[in-house]
Amino acid sequence: KAKGLKNMVIYKYQNKDVYIFDNHNHAFYFWIKSLKKGNFNKGCKLVHVDQHKDTREPNNYNVDIDDVFRYTNEVLNVGSFIKPALKYNIFSDVIIIDSSYGFNLEIDEEFVLDIDLDIFSKDMDYIPYNLKVSKIKELIQRAKVITIASSPFFIKQEYAIKVLKELFTCDIIKELK
Description:
By secondary structure, this protein is α/β, with parallel strands linked by helices. The protein has helices at about 25-35, 70-75, 80-85, 100-105, 130-140, 155-165, and strands at about 10-15, 15-20, 45-50, 90-95, 110-115, 145-150. Helix content is about 30%, strand content about 20%. The longest helix is centred in the C-terminal third of the chain and has 14 residues, at about 130-140. It is globular and about 40 Å long. The model has no long low-confidence stretch (mean pLDDT about 90).
């Protein structure tokens, strides 16, 4: 019922990979892909900026690294993709930014940044827009890899793309429709 992005986008921004997709479970696939490429150190932190925690248990943890695409699309869902990444030590810990408190955290260690654009939904308007944008821009500069979900079930895609244009002052959005 909710239309998402026409295509997934892989973009190089300031010499780092940025993956943009609609449904958030796809982040798991791109974390594995980036880890295999050596774009971040296994066991670093995950910084998860989202309206939701996305830490539900998946139906199973039986992921074959060579079959991660199937696992991502057939087992995981938009709320259960973080726990397998922690179980397999892709990340040592997840720092969840889903509140005013979270947006004021200082993060010093290596991390992968995972953004769900639903953090900009109307439900999250109690956190000032400018605070969200400035903190996420700061995190973008320091992240090793960035995954971004446009979350069509939780935020209008036109608005999500508008926010992306503000977060990335470049041509990252040309391929999004």
